[in-house]
Amino acid sequence: MKAAQDDMVIKVRGLVNGFGSKIIHDHIDLDVRRGEVMGIVGGSGSGKSVLLRSIIGLIPPRAGTVRVFGQPVGEVEGPDMKALEMRWGVLFQQGALFSSQTVAENIQVPLREYTTMSQSLMDEIAAVKLTMVGLPEDTAQKYPSELSGGMIKRAALARALALDPELLFLDEPTAGLDPISANKFDELIKSLRKSLGLTVFLVTHDLDTLRAITDRIAVLVNKKIRVGTIDELRRDKDPWIQDYFSGARGRAALDSAG
Question: Is the pTM of this model over 0.85?
Answer without folding.
Answer: yes
